[in-house]
Backbone:
């Protein structure tokens, strides 16, 4: 576990996991501790994420903190020289330039805390998250609870039929599942697709 108790130069911390695992909650916790310690912080999120608020980072438990919505990670480089801690939520929605931006900030001496989904609804690595995890000083993987069996969940299973990679939604669109339950759900879906194709061909 990353220690906040020693003086350090710039660094990158990544908090990752599935939907409903507490990623944003942990990001907000770390940022508010920095605020309490009197540190100057700046928080960013993708402009596309307006589920709870246009200008706040909000957890599923409705804890919130003010943020700046941005379309391009390069906008983070306009952060003032007095900022000591930068937070980034929903990092998976940014492109790969986020990695270089976070590296640049960390090399300036900034503590960069990034939260995001590590895998998409198909179980594949999501956006810039794998690269961020590779260059980070610290990575914490948090878990939800599988809604089917109660084991630790590390997959975000999509309930809708949409095949779009980016699909904003909450419990009406996604559910957290463990590996076994996720694989079973995907197998059922593939079987349903196969059956529909056979029906259409008749």
Residues:
């Amino acid at each position: 576990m990353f220690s906040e108790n020693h003086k350090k130069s710039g660094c990158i911390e990544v908090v990752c996991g599935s939907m409903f695992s507490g990623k944003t909650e942990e990001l907000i916790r770390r940022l508010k501790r920095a605020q309490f310690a009197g540190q100057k912080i700046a928080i960013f999120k993708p402009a596309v994420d307006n589920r709870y608020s246009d200008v706040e980072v909000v957890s599923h438990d409705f804890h919130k903190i003010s943020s700046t919505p941005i379309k391009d990670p390069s906008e983070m480089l306009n952060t003032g020289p007095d900022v000591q801690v930068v937070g980034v939520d929903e990092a998976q929605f940014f492109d790969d330039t986020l990695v270089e931006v976070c590296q640049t900030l960390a090399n300036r001496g900034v503590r960069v805390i990034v939260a995001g989904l590590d895998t998409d609804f198909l179980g594949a690595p999501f956006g810039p998250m794998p690269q961020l995890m590779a260059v980070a000083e610290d990575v914490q993987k948090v878990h939800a609870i599988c809604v089917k069996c109660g084991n630790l969940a590390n997959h975000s299973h999509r309930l809708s039929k949409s095949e779009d990679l980016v699909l904003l939604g909450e419990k009406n669109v996604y559910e957290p599942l463990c590996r076994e339950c996720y694989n079973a759900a995907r197998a059922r879906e593939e079987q349903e697709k196969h059956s529909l194709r056979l029906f259409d061909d008749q």
